[in-house]
């Protein structure tokens, strides 16, 4: 997207606003598919939690992607977007048996990650095929909050508990049709990923009726010019060779599954905000914008880097700014960041705002969540309206118990 496109969107739909470029999503999907084009059966399930707008889910469905979901609500969003239940995988953590049963009744592929629920579900529903999420005990990921495959993780069933799994399967008569893992996000070292894959291959040999093996995702995308990223092409070449060999060893052509989220939508997203004030202190120049971590929490939550450009003055003299929000707490998007000279009223853009940005937004400080816009084939489409005061109070209940007004003296 060009700066003038972004500025036009900010002017038309107001600020702050999220913008997604569909062409980038499509090219990322094609890139991942091409990396595994020599695999006979490939299934890419988009991780809905990254960005769950129905328009995005419809786009994924049109590309042939399935959905990876973690809540019954995400499943319902997928169904509303027209995705077939058979193309949805449900991979929750710590949810109730009732929620799993509710999703299962919709015809969705169930993925279970703890022994207790596995035994309860298998006892009640032995004829429903189930995938098992394993914990390979591999530390991977760019931040401790997004590393989920290590020994102390709450996710998955330990590979050392395979005998317990087999006992449950035998006692219940349930069918295991898939094996799954997810080691973390922002994985750069493909050798670490491949090592975890070997563990899953070894695990899979314990189950004779598998249809697929899902290796999760977590591929790293670049966050700034010259940034390192997962070499998808190299990984695809190595993984394809190994997976095809494994299928021969297993004696059956299995489906190779991945569940990319950030990889597909991160670089497609822009978060646009207007600069309210330039404030110079004894040591810092602050650019205060009309947003905060209520809209865009990743820099504060993950210490993530998002490139910032002044789209109102992209060619101006560069200066150093600490870009901050309007929340009455530490609310810093960037510290001493070199940006083209910013003036009050300018519009700035945060890049890589497609994944885990709007989906993690809130109404903190009773602020409205922003609008979302999809840039598709050269045209801006509003895909979520900006919230209003009515949205903020819609589910609040006004109780009539404070009728007396205290008198003041």
UniProtKB/TrEMBL annotation:
N6-(pyridoxal phosphate)lysine sites (modified residues): 49
What GO biological process, any one, is recorded here? lysine biosynthetic process via diaminopimelate
The Swiss-Prot or TrEMBL record lists the needed cofactor(s) as:
pyridoxal 5'-phosphate
Give, as in the UniProt entry, the pathway in which the protein acts.
Amino-acid biosynthesis; L-lysine biosynthesis via DAP pathway; L-lysine from DL-2,6-diaminopimelate: step 1/1
Under which EC number(s) is this enzyme classified? Answer: 4.1.1.20
- Domain Orn/DAP/Arg decarboxylase 2 N-terminal as annotated: residue spans: 24-266
- Chain sites annotated for binding pyridoxal 5'-phosphate: 218, 356
Asked if the record carries the keyword Amino-acid biosynthesis, the reply is: yes
Q: Does the UniProt entry include the keyword tRNA processing? A: no
Per UniProt, where does substrate bind?
298, 302, 329, 356
All copies of domain Orn/DAP/Arg decarboxylase 2 C-terminal, residue ranges? 18-354
Q: Which UniProt keywords apply?
A: Amino-acid biosynthesis, Decarboxylase, Lyase, Lysine biosynthesis, Pyridoxal phosphate
Record Gene3D superfamilies: Alanine racemase (3.20.20.10), Lyase, Ornithine Decarboxylase, Chain A, domain 1 (2.40.37.10)
Q: Which residues form the active site?
A: 328
Q: Into which family does the record put it?
A: Belongs to the Orn/Lys/Arg decarboxylase class-II family. LysA subfamily.
Q: So what does this one do?
A: Specifically catalyzes the decarboxylation of meso-diaminopimelate (meso-DAP) to L-lysine.
User: Which protein is depicted?
Assistant: Diaminopimelate decarboxylase
- What's the gene? lysA
């Amino acid at each position: 997207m060009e700066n003038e496109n972004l500025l036009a969107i900010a002017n038309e739909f107001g600020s702050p606003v999220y913008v997604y470029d569909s062409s980038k999503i499509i090219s990322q999907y094609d890139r991942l598919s091409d990396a595994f084009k020599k695999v006979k059966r490939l299934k890419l399930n988009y991780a809905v939690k990254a960005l769950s707008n129905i328009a995005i889910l419809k786009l994924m469905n049109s590309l042939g992607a399935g959905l990876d979901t973690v809540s019954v609500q995400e499943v319902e969003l997928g169904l509303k977007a027209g995705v077939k239940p058979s193309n949805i995988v449900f991979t929750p953590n710590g949810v109730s048996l009732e929620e799993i049963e509710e999703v299962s009744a919709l015809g969705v592929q169930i993925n279970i990650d703890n022994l207790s629920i596995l035994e309860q579900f298998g006892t009640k529903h032995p004829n429903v095929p189930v995938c098992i999420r394993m914990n390979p005990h591999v530390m991977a990921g760019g931040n401790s909050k997004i590393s989920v495959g290590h020994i102390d993780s709450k996710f998955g069933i330990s590979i050392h508990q395979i005998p317990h799994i087999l006992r449950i399967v035998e006692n219940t008569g349930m069918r295991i049709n898939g094996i799954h893992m997810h080691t973390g996000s922002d994985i750069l070292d493909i050798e670490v990923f491949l090592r975890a894959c070997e563990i899953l291959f070894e695990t899979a040999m314990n189950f004779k009726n598998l249809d697929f093996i899902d290796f999760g995702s977590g591929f790293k995308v670049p966050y700034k010019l010259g940034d390192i990223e997962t070499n998808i092409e190299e990984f695809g070449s190595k993984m394809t060779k190994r997976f095809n060999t494994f299928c021969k060893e297993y004696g059956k052509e299995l489906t190779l599954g991945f569940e990319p989220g950030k990889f597909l939508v991160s670089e497609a997203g822009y978060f646009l905000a207007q600069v309210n004030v330039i404030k110079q202190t004894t040591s810092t120049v602050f650019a205060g914008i009309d947003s905060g971590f209520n809209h865009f929490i990743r820099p504060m939550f993950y210490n993530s880097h998002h490139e910032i450009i002044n789209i109102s003055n992209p060619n101006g003299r560069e200066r150093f700014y600490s870009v901050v929000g309007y929340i009455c707490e530490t609310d810093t998007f960037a510290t001493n960041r070199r940006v083209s000279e910013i003036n009050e009223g300018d519009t700035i853009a945060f890049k890589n705002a497609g994944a885990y940005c709007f989906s993690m937004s809130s109404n903190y400080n009773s602020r409205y969540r922003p609008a979302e816009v999809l840039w598709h084939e050269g045209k801006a489409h509003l895909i979520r309206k900006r919230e209003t005061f009515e949205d903020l109070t819609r589910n609040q209940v006004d109780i009539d118990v404070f009728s007396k007004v205290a008198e003041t003296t």
